[in-house]
Design brief:
Elements (H helix, E strand, L loop, with lengths): L2 H40 L1 E13 L19 E4 L2 E7 L3 E9 L3 E6 L3 E2 L7 E9 L4 E3 L5 E4 L2 E3 L3 E8 L11 E6 L4 E3 L5 E11 L8 E4 L4 E2 L8 E13 L1
Antiparallel strand pairs: 1-4, 1-17, 2-3, 3-7, 4-5, 4-6, 7-14, 8-13, 8-16, 9-10, 9-15, 11-12, 11-14, 15-17
């Protein structure tokens, strides 16, 4: 075989390898582009917003204009040296927007609906007391007032860590709810007493201002001081998600 023919054959072989390589590279690039595009298309994000009720006693102007992150405890309400925390299961979602590529809208839910872990139709009030020293709590006298109509709870439970004998436990023990009946003495200032009051009522919308929680007969101070009347104001919340 002459040198010219040999070099021609070598050239053709190299060209063939280059073409094959280019095809492979092109195929790889297309595959990679498809994977990236699929990832971007599936990278959906969303934004929810709505309102919830925050409790206050005297001045609603002292409430925050917007709720903090969802992992934060309920807003603290000071009363007579105590720290009260009150939460209703009436968190209301007013809109939910989902977007693709973080900018292209894919779905919109403009309807109002209740959300949260206590997503049930009946009203639940979470009532925490800290700093109590010789106070009394009589759950049967708690009253939730809607449009002037007073309602007593149908069930009150206390959440705490207890030992096998049912006594408070600071170390070993099991967390859980136990039904509370009769008057409960609150005598440990460092303990956070956590109660759940359930009412045979529909949850009120936080956008309304026709309801309150009257604890005047339920919570008593050391000298017999009547408990507070807790009113509620709608405060906006926002939550982004991916």
């Amino acid at each position: 075989m002459s040198c010219a023919v040999w070099f021609a054959a070598l050239w053709l072989h190299l060209c063939s390898l280059c073409l094959r390589g280019a095809f492979v590279v092109t195929l790889f690039n297309k595959t990679l582009f498809g994977i990236v595009l699929f990832g971007l298309l599936s990278a959906c994000a969303g934004f929810r917003e709505g309102y919830e009720s925050l409790a206050y006693i005297d001045n609603a102007e002292q409430l925050p204009k917007q709720r903090g992150p969802g992992y934060m405890p309920p807003h603290a309400v000071p009363w007579n040296g105590l720290t009260l925390r009150v939460a209703l299961n009436n968190t209301l979602q007013t809109s939910d927007h989902t977007v693709m590529l973080f900018v292209v809208p894919t779905s919109v839910d403009p309807f109002d609906k209740f959300v949260g872990p206590e997503a049930q139709s009946r009203l639940t009030v979470f009532f925490d007391v800290k700093g109590a020293d010789n106070h009394e709590f009589d759950p049967s006298k708690a009253q939730f007032v809607v449009d002037g109509q007073r309602h007593a709870p149908i069930l009150v439970t206390e959440f705490a860590k207890r030992d096998p004998d049912g006594q408070y436990a600071d170390t070993d023990g099991r967390w859980g709810y136990e039904t509370l009946t009769g008057v409960k003495r609150l005598t440990e200032p460092g303990r956070n007493y956590s109660f759940k009051l359930q009412f045979d009522l529909d949850r009120p919308s936080p956008l309304k201002d026709n309801f309150l929680l009257d604890m005047q007969g339920a919570l008593k101070g050391p000298a017999g001081q009547a408990g507070p009347v807790l009113r509620f104001k709608a405060v906006k919340w926002e939550n982004g998600y991916t």
